Amino acid sequence: MKSAQQIASEVRSGVTTAIGELTTSLRAIRERNDELHVFLYVDEEGAIEAAARIDERVGRGDDVGPLAGVPIALKDNLCQTGIPTTCSSRILEGWRPPYSATVIDRLMAAGAVPVGKTNLDEFAMGSSTENSAFGPTRNPLDPSRVPGGSSGGSAAAVAADMTPIALGSDTGGSIRQPAALCGLVGMKPTYGLVSRYGLIAFASSLDQIGPFAKNVTDAALLLEAIAGHDPMDSTSLPEPSPSLVAHVNDGVAGQRIALVRELVEGADDDVVASVYRAVETLRDAGATIVELSIPELHLGLSAYYLIAPAEASSNLARYDGVRYGLRVDADDVAAMNEATRTAGFGDEVKRRIIVGTYALSAGYYDAYYGQALKVRTQMIAAFKRAYQQADLLIGATTPSVAFTFGSKTKDPMAMYLNDVFTIPTNLAGEAAVSVPFGTGEAELPIGVQLLGPGRSEARLFAAARVLEIAEGRS
After folding, report:
1. Statement to judge: residues 391 and 318 lie in one domain
2. Taking Cα atoms as reference points, which of 297, 289, 291, 292 lies closest to residue 266?
3. DSSP collapsed to 3 states, 289-353
4. Is 144 a catalytic residue?
């Protein structure tokens, strides 16, 4: 499939049409969606109407935007007016939002063509897309393996050439981890850079929407289109979208990049080897390489699995069988609430609600949730100290390549450990990108992770581009 940048350029110039590009995308979806289970809903009629409007505007000589005619996949926790939105949960059965997320409005304004909603771990709680109430998504590179999670459907859509770009959300690694397992570029932006309005909340202080793409430039193009202040989101940074595409080829000369010991510890040998080779590539490109230890990162997993479930416990209390979605009738309101939530939520969601409710309960708040918040503060301070010694950090995105279905579902801790390298960035509210670099077991892709302080997306994309060129992916 052509890049998003190429499609947009050709549509704007009249070399191709938005309808023609959409037809290619829909054909690819029809060919592989039954096998891979990527899309939960394909809005073919709406996409055709959107593409036709773009072609009509091009014909009039209008500026149709930087994503003119580019098909895009949307994770099914993003609200879109009148389109079924499930979060891959039975609890939202039959719900069609009366409004759209800000990012979707911005995509439409930029000329993109949303084609449908992709599968995810239920309410974004998972690392493999095996927790979906509607069945798992398969990795297009090896269907016996997972695509990662929770944004596994969005990653698989791009990896399978169904769309050139996609949106996911990242609460503890849910963009970067599937990007690594599917051989894509995936960016978790600075908290507040992209509006969360219309993103169905998992953990509100951690969630952030970001891009998937096959190359760095497309990822930068997409992030630039959706970023910027939104008065509908109280956590939105009060500043315009940053210039990103213009800086992807800035390189790393003069940059200080630190290899972080804790971001490779415990990873498979082939993953560690790829990270070290990436370090040497950046050194050869003019970066100064240093080594750092950030011991506080070891506490990230423990803090995250108290903070995130606590916020989920609060956010998911709204699914009560009264206002929208599934309702299981019973003799009284309390029994109806219980029956609805029992039938509507899957095991992993129930597990996290229980953990989070316990952590917030009287007598345990200070011992668990309060302590986790203190650890989070320590981690933010540790990152601040690290960025006094380096401009960017580097490490592994995941401990291994994509794993086989069912290999970790019986042990929640084994599954949680897939996010051990990605969680710290979410706790700190900073930015990070995963870029494909090398292969491991069964020639499956390995993701190298670059981390930066808040608002460092341009530098991160520039460093990722250096690695991309070195791998011959330009």
Report:
1. no
2. 297
3. EEEECCHHHHHHHHHHHHHHHHHHHHHHHHCCCCCCCCCCCCCCHHHHHHHHHHHHCCHHHHHHH
4. no
Contact status, residue 232 vs residue 197, Cβ threshold 8 Å: yes
Q: Are residues 90 and 185 in the same domain?
A: yes
Options 128, 154, 169, 174, the catalytic residue: 174
Distance CA 357, CA 329 (A): 25
100 given a catalytic annotation: no
Does residue 324 contact residue 92 with C-beta atoms inside 8 Å? yes
CATH number, domain of 280, equals 3.40.190
pLDDT tier, 413 (very low <50, low <70, confident <90, very high otherwise): confident
- Taking residues 58-64, report their average pLDDT: 97
Cα angle 321-325-330, degrees, rounded to a multiple of 5 = 30
Q: Which of 75, 117, 188, 214 is catalytic?
A: 75
pLDDT tens digits, residue range 76-130? 999 999 999 999 999 999 999 999 999 999 999 999 999 999 999 999 999 999 9
Q: Establish if 449 belongs to a structural domain.
A: yes
Residues shown for the chain = 474
75 flagged as catalytic: yes
Q: What is the pTM of this model?
A: 0.98
Q: What is the pLDDT of residue 359?
A: 96
The pLDDT tens digits for 19-43 are 999 999 999 999 999 999 999 999 9
- Establish if 410 belongs to a structural domain: yes
Domain count, the chain: 3
Query: What pLDDT shows up at residue 53?
Result: 98
Structure tokens at 293: 């230890």
Closest CA to 187 of 468, 457, 466: 457
Best CA proximity match to 301, nearest among 210, 382, 414, 207: 414
Q: H-type helices in 319-451, by residue range?
A: 333-344, 347-360, 371-389, 412-416, 423-428
The active-site residue, picked from 88, 150, 154, 195, is 150
- Give mean pLDDT, residues 453-463: 98
> Residue 288 belongs to what domain range?
256-295+382-470
Rounded to an integer, the average pLDDT of 130-149 is 98
What string of DSSP letters covers 174-230? TTHHHHHHHT-EEEEPPTTSB--TTBPPSSTTT--EEEEESSHHHHHHHHHHHBS--
pLDDT of residue 395: 98
Q: What is the pLDDT of residue 1?
A: 86
Residues 153 and 69 occupy one common structural domain: yes
User: In sequence order, what are the residues at sequence separation of 6 or more whose Cβ sits closer than 8 angstroms to the Cβ of residue 363?
Assistant: none
